[in-house]
TrEMBL record, chains A, B:
Gene3D superfamilies: 3.30.420.40. Keywords: Kinase, Transferase. This is Glucosamine kinase. PANTHER family: N-ACETYL-D-GLUCOSAMINE KINASE. It comes from Microvirga flocculans. The keyword Transferase applies. One of its GO terms (molecular function) is glucosamine kinase activity. Signal peptide: none annotated. It is an enzyme of class 2 (transferase). Residues 7-281 form the ATPase BadF/BadG/BcrA/BcrD type domain. Its EC number is 2.7.1.8. The keyword Nuclease does not apply.
Length: 293, 293
């Protein structure tokens, strides 16, 4: 009963996932909870974490009293923001220890088991992250306004920007621009109203359409995807230049964008050794051994 | 006392300007009032218009009772938005007639006295507008999110975007990027916090800095200004291709950006015949003669 337990937590905006392993690495159970983006109310985040944790404990046939044996590690979007982490850590928790880092860090820990390597996450946003010789590096990932090159949000915004050119007569129309402009009734006032309310995820919903048309050699789609791939290639190249020997790609747009990347980048892509939940478990183990040494 | 009076109004976000002329075109007076962006409360906008109008009347030695002799024309940012115009026109006014159109339209009316020609406005935003053979065309000007190529807001945002590349090691630093990154303590978290609160005018405040460094051959500054000029060149080219024989430039960035424009565009640039206030007077006269014919 006094054996160590390790809990890996993935804290996302819509749900929280948790995985429980024993000290030997055996899988004991998994569970999910509610929203756990750490920019949210800390009480809500802890409630989501504990819901996911208790579900994993129950699956393992363990109990509330076993909470105190758990060393937890959490990867969370927004954990680069010190103030949000401080707010979360100001609450008490029932674990033996609790370590937190960014979701990029735990994805990287899982992918390379803590060894040298880089990851490239491409979904609504984009972010590069790598660890080399014990030093970690972020490349990009500062939000779609001024960063997130090659992300779904940037692809979608670029699509609408170029559709304005087509509507103005500044660029030739293509089947892709025809389809998008028709969606807005060929009325830029309607389009601009939509833009005024659009969030990054709204722009990002156009990325699959752009990729689909690009795959059919639509000139506008190909131009946008080529530009996105160049942006991602620049992030990857920087990480490889920093000394990362290989690259893992994650996120909903990783697979469709991969064939568009520059061949020297494509050649470095490998499959991850493990996922971000196991990366979070490694975070917990590393934090514990750090405290013990 | 029954002679016609014509009032030209320029409705801006910070102030309202008005100019009064008689039927022969003689200048009688000018005045200013408060904020009159027509997206604001209609009562506030009318109050600003009438303040500016009464100041012009006073300068002309005229009186409250002369309001009924005035045929007014107003150019206003946001007048392309039908709902805002409808809100404004739902209020009663003391004028004999009142016509309203966009600030681009009155700037064009003034610049070419209603004849064929195009204008390019470059300040915080950018917009192209032209009238050819009685047909008017907007090119660009749909806001900095997906349009406003070459504007101050887009130049400033592009500066910060490329400064992130420099900070990441994805692009070489230059004196311009050094200066900007130092302003944010070389801390991208500080920069991203700033971006989260930034309005287009905040980005636009970086445009003079970019132009200054570009003038000193800073590679980053030159790259951004070259891209901005290409965007403006594409707007101008479209207007010229639609048949506009000449181009007038307006806005705080028109003069510094002009030498960067493609030579075939530069060659078409002329001085405006008159300003937007006289364009608004022409709007009022045209509306009146349209009603009388």
């Amino acid at each position: 009963m006094t054996d160590l337990l390790f809990l890996g937590i993935d804290g996302g905006g819509t749900k929280c996932r948790a995985r429980l392993r024993d000290a030997q690495g055996n899988l004991l159970g998994e569970g999910t909870g509610g929203p756990s983006n750490i920019r949210l109310d800390p009480d809500l985040v802890w409630s989501s974490i504990l819901t996911a944790c208790r579900a994993a404990l129950a699956q393992a046939g363990l109990h509330e009293r076993d909470l105190g044996r758990i060393h937890a590690g959490m990867g969370a979007a927004g954990a680069g923001q010190t103030s949000a982490v401080d707010r979360l850590l100001a609450r008490s928790h029932p674990f033996a220890s609790f370590a937190i880092d960014t979701d990029a860090h735990t994805a990287w820990l899982g992918a390379f088991n803590g060894g040298d390597g880089a990851i490239l996450i491409v979904g609504t946003g984009s972010c590069g992250y790598g660890g080399v010789s014990g030093r970690c590096h972020y490349v990009g990932g500062w939000g779609y306004e001024i960063s997130d090159d090659g992300s779904g949000a940037v692809i979608g915004r670029e699509l609408l920007r170029r559709c304005v050119w087509v509507h103005d007569g500044r660029a030739p129309g293509t089947p892709l621009s025809d389809a998008v402009l028709a969606e807005f009734g060929n009325d830029l006032e309607v389009l601009v109203d939509w833009v005024g309310k659009a969030r990054p995820s709204d722009y990002g919903r156009y990325a699959p359409l752009v990729l689909e048309y690009a795959g059919r050699r639509d000139p506008l789609g190909m131009a946008i995807v080529t530009e996105a791939a160049a942006g991602l290639g620049s992030i990857a190249t920087r990480l490889l230049d920093l000394g990362a020997p290989a690259l893992c790609m994650f996120g909903g747009l990783a697979e469709p964008l991969r064939p568009w990347l520059p061949p020297p980048v494509q050649r470095t892509i490998t499959s991850p050794m493990a996922d971000a939940l196991d990366g979070a478990i490694l975070l917990a183990r590393t934090a514990l051994s750090g405290r013990q040494s």
